Amino acid sequence: MKACKSKTVIGNIHSFETFGTHEGPGIRFVLFMQGCLARCLYCHNPDTWNERAGRQMSAEQVVRKLDKCMPYIISSKGGITVSGGEPLLQMDFLKELFCLCKERGVHTAIDTGAFYRPQDEYKLFSLLELTDLFLVDIKSVDKDLHKRITSRDLKQVLDFINLLEENKKPYWIRYVLAPGLNDTEKDLKALGSLVRGFRHASNFEFLPYHTLGKHKWEYLGLEYPLKDVRVARSEDIKRALQYI
Predict the structure, then answer these.
(1) In the 8-state DSSP scheme, what is residue 168?
(2) CA distances from 56 to 4, 32, 61, 194 (A)
(3) What letter would DSSP give residue 18?
(4) Is the pTM of this model over 0.90?
């Protein structure tokens, strides 16, 4: 692999988690980026929407924090996962960060809704080479419901998955299950038909809808749109798995 270039790109950072266990294999150093184009109805991080907020850091500064976590990352065969917000809004920063991670032999992952700017699509190809795993969120397989939940088009998500398939990149599919919103028999059977056609998706999981981020909406002076939707229970997940 080529050595990393000395160009310094500044990223807008929301926060860190130094002991993540649900964002990829092993123990993960999780970096939450600032900025998102979507407005998901159940977003638990609405404080990441503003692209200009947060803390500005270079990739080298982030890696210095990562270095302190290397003992348990190495022992657990973990790595770094970049989430958000939408990390693909800061692809130049991700490329520099992941290049430095690869010099250290660190497994790299991106947790994404695939809501990047269309004019930045050409940047994806070089980022694919530096990324070991993508965690892709599908909100709904019905285009109208997907638009309602996210304010974004489903086609962009499916195009991104097709790009991963064409390049044989490993990825996981995750689906937030919200009772009464995207959990009908029709929704779930359509989801099952879709994911069965993915050759390089190595894992699928339902994420149960919760309201842990509701207080953030209230703090920001926003009306929480799903206040009448109950949290998903274990029996909801079992039922959904039967359908798909």
Answers:
(1) T
(2) 21, 12, 10, 39
(3) E
(4) yes
